[in-house]
Write a structure and sequence with these properties.
This protein has about 400 residues and is an alpha+beta fold. It has helices spanning about 1-25, 30-40, 45-55, 60-80, 95-115, 125-140, 140-160, 165-190, 195-225, 230-240, 260-270, 280-290, 335-350, 390-395, and strands at about 270-275, 280, 295-300, 305-310, 355-360, 365-375, 380-390. Strand 3 (about 295-300) and strand 4 form a beta hairpin. Helix 1 (about 1-25) packs antiparallel against helix 2, helix 2 packs across helix 4 and helix 5 (about 95-115) runs antiparallel to helix 6 (about 125-140).
């Protein structure tokens, strides 16, 4: 047993050393040679452990993120064998089947709808430009695909102690989103393809294809090692909250059903929730909170997400997978420091409220954070309230209860 532990530690240390050498400027070929000499094979979980160790030792997530494309290429040959045809990726409607099908669509857009038209000599400029512009616009659907990964899969990875890969991958997702948006805007302004624009698009396409590899050959094996069928079922059911980029996704109904869970839920619904100024049945309270014209999310004093409302029109996607998740892990690396500062200000008492407002998809979104405190002033958590205030801004005149 001690020999196994020692070997595992040596392998993890070797992986850490390889990533550090890449960071120091070693070439991919040099690192590949070192890798082949040190390993006969490596599991996805060991890659995760190495990344987590690097981050815990002080290497910023952004630094690991910069190495992500390179070390994925280095490890590719060894981890491909982890992914077997017997995986649930073949089960219609299973979240991993959906992930693979969506990746196939993304790859098709990249390889069939964009890349063939990038060489400037292939066809007339206007035709090529039109094809490329249309293809890049299709890539905006990536946000839906990445949203399911970040809001449904990452929480379970964190639950099982796999913390570094989600942070690194989320950072790359945001880079890709930003580059898709920037490229679409550049195409709109340019009116035709040029060499600099073609090179920028090629780099974007390479990054997208590399992310497909990372999802299917690094992330998926990690999830398969840990998640239960019940957890996969929860992910499948909640995927509809975020949406799909493919058509006709079938309903996945695994044979095993958790009858005990169903009985527990029915028992809880029958009870009463008593408050200082009244009481509710669970059904009443749930319906009332969901009827509010805004979204609310509560994070407790330990920075753990405990509740969110489920109104008909959601501003941002929320899935039950985030319940129990640390609030810092619910935000991309680029903005997590702002969230952490708000929480810290609430805890110290230097602030009780913080507001932000953004324009998004024709809406004017007001995001408000409130410190939740007891009567004695003890910090209990944070309440986030999100609302589209555009309809409110458009109100004019008066409308009274009694018609005049």
């Amino acid at each position: 047993m001690s020999e196994y532990i020692n070997n595992r530690e040596m392998r993890q240390n070797a992986i850490k050393e390889i990533i550090k050498k890449l960071h120091e400027g070693k070439s991919v070929e040099e690192v590949k040679k070192l890798f082949e000499e040190a390993f006969h094979g490596v599991s996805a979980s060991e890659i995760s452990a190495a990344e987590t160790a690097l981050i815990s030792e002080g290497l910023p997530v952004e630094e690991v993120q910069k190495l992500c494309d390179v070390h994925a290429a280095v490890f590719k040959g060894s981890i491909e064998e982890i992914h077997h045809p017997s995986d649930p990726t073949l089960i219609p409607g299973h979240p991993l089947n959906v992930l693979v099908k969506e990746n196939e669509k993304i790859a098709q857009i990249v390889e069939d709808d964009i890349r063939p038209y990038l060489p400037l000599t292939r066809m007339s400029g206007k035709e090529a430009f039109s094809k490329v512009k249309e293809g890049v616009n299709q890539l905006k659907d990536l946000s839906v695909h990445y949203g399911k990964k970040e809001n449904l899969l990452f929480p379970y990875m964190e639950k099982y102690g796999i913390t570094a890969p989600p942070k690194v991958m989320w950072g790359v997702d945001d880079e890709i989103r930003g580059q898709v948006k920037e490229t679409a805007e550049m195409l709109h302004r340019a009116g035709e393809l040029n060499e600099a624009l073609v090179q920028k698009i090629e780099k974007l396409l390479d990054k997208i294809i590399e992310m497909i590899f990372k999802e299917e050959n690094i992330m998926v094996p990690m999830l398969l090692e840990q998640l239960t069928q019940e957890e996969w079922k929860t992910i499948a059911d909640e995927s509809k909250e975020i949406g799909f980029i493919i058509d006709r996704v079938p309903q996945w109904n695994p044979a095993a059903e958790d009858k005990n869970k169903e009985k527990t839920e029915k028992k809880e619904e029958a009870g009463l929730i008593k408050l200082p100024s009244g009481e509710f049945k669970v059904e009443e309270l749930t319906a009332m909170l969901n009827a509010l014209p805004f979204d609310i999310t509560f994070v407790n004093k330990d920075d753990v997400v405990k509740y969110f409302s489920e109104g008909k029109e959601r501003t941002f996607p929320r899935t039950k997978a985030i319940i129990g998740r640390n609030v810092s892990n619910c935000h991309p690396p680029a903005s997590v420091h702002i969230v952490e500062q708000i929480v810290e200000d609430f805890k110290t008492g230097s602030k009780d409220q913080e507001d932000f407002w953004i324009q998004m998809a024709g809406k004017y979104i007001l995001i408000r954070y409130y410190a939740v405190r007891s009567h004695e002033g003890e910090y209990l958590g944070v309440l986030e309230v999100t609302q589209d205030i555009k309809p409110i801004q458009e109100i004019t005149g008066e409308k009274r209860l009694i018609s005049e």
